[in-house]
Amino acid sequence: MQGQRKWNALLLAAAVIILLVLPLVVKSSFAIDIFIRILLFSFIGVAWNLMGGYAKQLSLGHAAYFGLGAYTSTILQIDFGISPWIGMIAGGVVAMLASLPIGWLCFRLRGPYFTIATIATAQALMLIFLKFRDLAWGAEGTTIPNLGNAPLMMQFEAKAAYYYVALGLLALGLAITYRIEKSWMGYYLVAIGEDEDAAEAIGVNAPRIKRDIYLISSFLTAMAGTFYTQYIYFIDPATAFSFNISIEAALVSIVGGIGTLWGPVVGTVLLETTSTLLQSWLGGSIGGVQLTVYSLILMAVILWRPTGLMGLATEAYQRYLRRRPARA
Amino acid sequence: MWETLAQAVINGLLIGGIYALVSIGVTLIFGVVKIVNFAQGEFVMIGMYISFFLANQFGIDPIVSLIVSTPVLFAIGVLIQHFLIRRVLGPNDMPQIFLTFALSLLLLNLALMLFTANYRTVHTSYSDEAFHIGGLYIPVAKLIAFGVAMALSGALWVFLHTTDLGKAMRAASQNRDVATLMGINPNRVFCVALGVALALAGAAGSLLMPFYSAYPFVGQVFVLMAFVAVVLGTLGNVIGALIASLMMGVAESLGIQFVGADSGQIVVFAMLLLTLAFKPNGLGGGRAR
Questions:
Q1: Number of structural domains found in chain B
Q2: Cβ-nearest to A302 among B102, B262, B277
Q3: Burial class, A40, CB count within 10 angstroms (exposed 0-12 / middle 13-18 / buried 19+)
Q4: Is A58 close to B112, i.e. CB distance below 8 A?
Q5: Which residue from B261, B242, B50, B10 is spatially nearest to B142, judged by alpha carbons?
Q6: Does A60 touch chain B (CB under 8 A)?
Q7: Residue A306: predicted pLDDT
Q8: B45 occurs within a structural domain
Q9: Residue A304 has pLDDT above 50, yes or no
Q10: Is residue A263 part of a domain?
Q11: Which chain A positions have a beta carbon within 8 Å of B38's beta carbon?
């Protein structure tokens, strides 16, 4: 046990150092762009995983919060000149407020019908932003005014700066997940995920726990939305509320290992790397290739490894640790 | 005013017949196998492409190509149940939801790769024909589609209520364990349920082809409608799904008529959210029949 903890700490320290120096070594803006995507989608996956992974509330509507975060900070920035750093928090709060009625609706249903309800709420929000043009630019969307290098407005000349922001977000998401995993709330979540009725029978206040974790999950997802809009300098309902965001959030967690701390990160690294390789081989000319491959990976994981890659890795790692002292 | 209203109701009922074929499939699978098939819309899409290619290559009328699309999709359904869904049946929701969801993503994106995102249409001799009764306008293609859809729904009802296999399916949907004890082979029943449900989706695709375009995302339009209808009509209830689908068609059509041409989807979402808020167990509140 002692040895395992030491090894875990060493691994983590090594990973942190590599991640911190990575943009100093790799100068290619193409590569940095991929790293940022990996960090961002890992973060979204981590946010999804809190609710979808631990409590098994399988949402396919997290784009709702991504979009709300993106729109809140953009509206605050363009109409009121407020920094996206503040907008990011405001977006998170808006997302939390939205998650209350949405959760009230969706949590009435369980299993697949919960999933359908979350899809519908995200799509409904996208329609609202499409139809009500006075609210936020309608279908055309808008570009974010480019202020050059303005760190206070979350705009940077160097791509590496965005990398560190995304890394910070991911670290925040993982820290929150770690804290929750080790707390009473983590155990309640897992209990709800295993069997909600049984959890309630032993005194877990399932509706309250689900509501609370939905608040946290939506707040974090909204932060990702703000960051993404600042990074691509553009917002429209189709990007901000894209169903693909909801899909990818769930996909990276399931492929990596649902309900595990590092699962979403592992899943994102695998899926984004695959997608990059595919694009460089095929030139990205054929539509649908990326999601075809994603769905095949997802099916393979579900059929053969429902615990995801983390399940595989943990087994291998523990087998290694168990063997090691025998040799020493 | 009354004429506009009547016209909107007729348009809604006609398209509601197609929604019914899709919803009945979803509710049948849910009732018997206890899973939600997220890919149901993609099988409508496959049915449409089958009819499109038969019409394009061999000049076969889309309605006639029903005799190809339904057995093909029946076979696909049996294979999917036997090789995929059977492996994830169990107390755990996650694999079930994401297996059919992955299947939906896969089929949709394969269609995008193979057929591109272009809209494909088939023009038949009756595509532009219509009956004029009083001031009302009834397109022939939609009327045929509605008639065949209702006939197929009726045939399914007869099948479920008079044949041994149909009774076995109803028994399995009411209580799987007891049905198994009575000597019903669950996997065989599940295979038939999947096959019949997908055949209905394929039929819906063929029936749509004379007046609707085929494109990779077309299934999404129908599957969402079907999910709403299935919740409204009480999960697993075939007649409930049929009635709810017709109601959905009418509601959508009234929305288009009186709110605006692009508001059909908003009406559907509004109905879904209202259903979830006030009638999460469906209007009937009954059990699988």
A1: 1
A2: B102
A3: buried
A4: no
A5: B10
A6: yes
A7: 79
A8: yes
A9: yes
A10: no
A11: 112
For A105, which of B99, B231, B277 is closest by C-beta distance?
B277
Structural domain range at position B219: 2-117+124-278
- The boundaries of the domain holding residue A152 are 31-242
> A299 and B99 in contact by Cβ < 8 A?
yes
Alpha helix positions (H), chain B: 2-33, 40-58, 66-83, 93-115, 140-162, 164-174, 176-181, 186-208, 218-232, 238-258, 264-278
The residue ranking higher by pLDDT, A328 or A164, is A164
Number of domains forming the structure of chain A:
1
**Cross-chain Cβ contact A303/B93 below 8 Å:** no
Closest by Cβ to A295, choosing from B109, B269, B270: B109
When comparing pLDDT for A243 and B259, which is higher? Answer: A243
- Spatial contact of B14 and B253, defined as CB atoms under 8 Å apart: no
Domain-located, residue A150? yes
Cβ–Cβ contact A289 with B under 8 A: yes
pLDDT value at A62 more than 80: yes
Q: How far is B102 from chain A (nearest CA, A)?
A: 5
Give the CA diameter of chain B: 59
Tell whether A280 is covered by a domain.
Answer: no
Residue A288 sits at the chain B interface (C-beta within 8 Å): yes
The ipTM is 0.84
Q: Is residue B284 part of a domain?
A: no
* B261/chain A closest Cα distance in angstroms: 12
Phi-psi region of B59 (alpha: psi -120 to 50; beta: other; left: phi over 0): left
A292–chain B nearest CA distance, Å: 5
Length of chain A as a residue count: 328
Percent of chain A with pLDDT over 70: 96
pLDDT at A326 over 60: no
Element (H, E) at A280: helix A263-282
CA distance linking residue A167 with residue A17, whole number of Å:
12
Contact B276 A306 (CB under 8 A): no
pLDDT (tens digit per residue) in A2-53: 667 788 888 888 888 888 888 888 878 888 888 999 999 999 999 999 998 8
Contacting residues of A for B222, CB less than 8 Å apart: none
Mean model confidence pLDDT for chain A: 86
What's residue B285's pLDDT? 47
What is the pTM assigned to this prediction?
0.86
The owner of tokens 């709810």 is B244
Residue among A108, A288, A302 whose CB faces B113 most closely: A288
Q: CATH number for the domain including B248? A: 1.10.3470
Report the phi/psi class of residue B92: left, alpha or beta, with left for phi > 0 and alpha for psi in -120 to 50: beta
d(C-alpha B277, C-alpha B228), whole Å:
13
Q: Which of A120, A131, A68 is nearest to A99 (CA)?
A: A68
